[in-house]
Specification:
Layout lengths: L3 E5 L3 H13 L3 E5 L2 H9 L5 E5 L1 E2 L2 E2 H11 L5 E5 L4 H9 L4 E4 L4 H14 L23 H13 L6 E4 L6 H10 L8 E5 L5 H11 L5 E5 L6 H12 L1 H6 L2 E6 L4 H5 L5 H7 L2 E4 L10 H14 L6 E2 L1 H8 L6 H15 L4 E2 L1 H10 L15 H15 L9 H20 L4 H8 L3 H11 L11
Parallel strand pairs: 1-2, 1-3, 3-6, 6-7, 8-11, 8-12, 9-10, 10-11, 13-14
Antiparallel strand pairs: 4-5
Length: 456
């Protein structure tokens, strides 16, 4: 790489890491901890690319983007942020960012983005039609799997491209479809939801041609259930002059893979490719276990907003929920939290109550440790086999090695800390690792550690 990169981040460690990595890659680097200095450099014509954090002591990096576009429209800006939400990704894209990368970031990925930014420096990016406003976070979770969803949403939200959302039951397909409408420039237009399992050809024509207005979003829920006759009508609608003149966008969802249906002659291939212009895969909850605790906290707030009793949940109970199995995905977790709020006698939902509630669920149980006579490897082998079986003929998403290690490591750390009553010195000794490694692991897994006294 060749060029000067301006780095703005109030975290000295991140500035140091980026400076060293970019310098080794052949770049010149100027680093600062504030937006004031960054803007002065930009005004003076410094830099061929920018890496900027969002939250800094003297301002917001996103707020600076419009001014950078006006002053130097050819200067690519890569936004990095710990505020890992779909709204942050959309705001960064709408404000003209070259790319958005959530923290913690993969250094090789960031360097690759910088290389592309330097290669394209001098080209003026297209101006977005309209900025999305931050009306709250419609999607919850900062896991790597959800960050990939956010990046796609940010790129497609203000386009006219048809979108197909794929994901297992309970992963939040309806919410994502509504978010694609509400967060973009169609927010003021109509959002029509059609149930593909029950809609008739006549109803389909009437809803789309009569009820859908200019710039409407037509959401085809469970596309794989659409009848043969309705498939023909929908294909004709997507090609009709009326629909195209109104700028109607089709967002569809499916919990069943459609390609096998095409191979069996059950679903029209031409319709599939009409609607699958931009695919978005929603991950199952087992592939985003980092999001279980923030999702649970979110659902507690939703319960309070709906007039239910305001309750909190113990950190140790959240840890137990994180290592449980959620075959019903996010919807199952939401229902579970609602039951906890309704049935728990205490203002703080404790670990024992959560453990009992998990055991009572028909489709899941508290994870059991293997018997002393059973090898851990056999238990892990059974778990991994079941994981592959759940994906059928498809392969699980990339990153399986680290995901499995995290699933084994998390309960080991939680139970060891519990056994030592939160004493990190004893826990490190018990595990046979040094204290710095233990602290790093606690931070990586976002484990809340509480010291407790031994009861006499």
């Amino acid at each position: 790489m060749d060029g000067t990169v301006l780095v703005a981040d109030d975290d000295r460690t991140i500035r140091t890491v980026l400076t060293q990595a970019l310098t080794r890659a052949g770049c010149k680097v100027r680093a600062t901890s504030n937006t004031t200095t960054l803007w002065r450099w930009i005004e003076e014509g410094e830099g061929d690319a920018v890496i900027s954090d969002v939250m800094m002591p003297d301002g917001n990096g996103l707020d600076l983007l419009p001014a950078i576009r006006r002053k130097r429209p050819d200067l690519p800006v890569i936004v990095i942020s710990a505020q890992n939400t779909v709204v942050t990704a959309i705001r960064a894209t709408d404000a003209g960012a070259f790319d958005y990368i959530p923290k913690p970031f993969d250094l090789r990925d960031l360097l690759s983005k910088v290389s592309k930014a330097l290669a394209q420096s001098g080209q003026t990016p297209p101006k977005p039609e309209q900025s999305a406003t931050d009306n709250g976070i419609p999607l919850v979770g900062g896991s790597p799997a959800m960050q990939e969803v956010y990046r796609i949403v940010a790129r497609v939200v203000n386009t006219d491209l048809n979108v197909l959302i794929m994901g297992a039951s309970g992963t939040g397909k309806d919410l994502l479809a509504k978010s694609l409408h509400d967060l973009g420039n169609r927010a003021g237009s109509q959002f029509l939801r059609l149930n593909c399992g029950t809609v008739t050809p006549d109803q389909l024509d009437a809803q789309v041609l009569i009820n859908a207005g200019q710039g409407a979003t037509v959401y085809m829920d469970e596309l794989s259930e659409l009848s043969a006759q309705s498939q023909i009508h929908l294909l004709n609608l997507t090609q009709s002059d009326s629909v195209q003149s109104l700028g109607i966008r089709f967002v569809s969802s499916t919990s069943r893979p459609i390609l096998p249906l095409i191979n069996d002659g059950v679903f029209r291939e031409d319709l599939f490719y009409r609607l699958n212009v931009m695919p978005i895969n929603l991950p199952p909850l087992r592939d985003r276990i980092e999001d279980i605790a923030p999702l649970a906290q979110h659902f507690l707030r939703v319960c309070a907003d709906r007039g239910m009793q305001v309750k909190t949940i113990a950190n140790s109970a959240l840890e137990l929920m994180r290592v449980a199995s959620w075959s019903g995905n996010v919807r199952a977790l939401e229902n579970f939290v609602q039951r906890l709020v309704l049935l728990s006698p205490d203002d703080e939902i404790n670990t024992a109550f959560v453990a009992t509630a998990l055991k009572e669920q028909s489709d899941q149980s508290v994870p059991n440790l293997p018997l002393v006579t059973e090898k851990l490897s056999a238990s892990v082998e059974a778990h991994v086999k079941r994981y592959f079986d759940l994906h059928g003929d498809a392969l699980p998403p990339p990153g399986l090695y680290n995901r499995i290690l995290r699933e084994v490591e998390l309960p080991l750390l939680v139970l060891s800390l519990s056994a030592t009553r939160g004493n990190q010195i004893k826990t490190a000794e018990l595990l046979g690792i040094n204290r710095n490694t233990l602290r790093k692991k606690i931070k990586e897994h976002d484990i809340q550690v509480t010291r407790t006294k031994k009861m006499m």
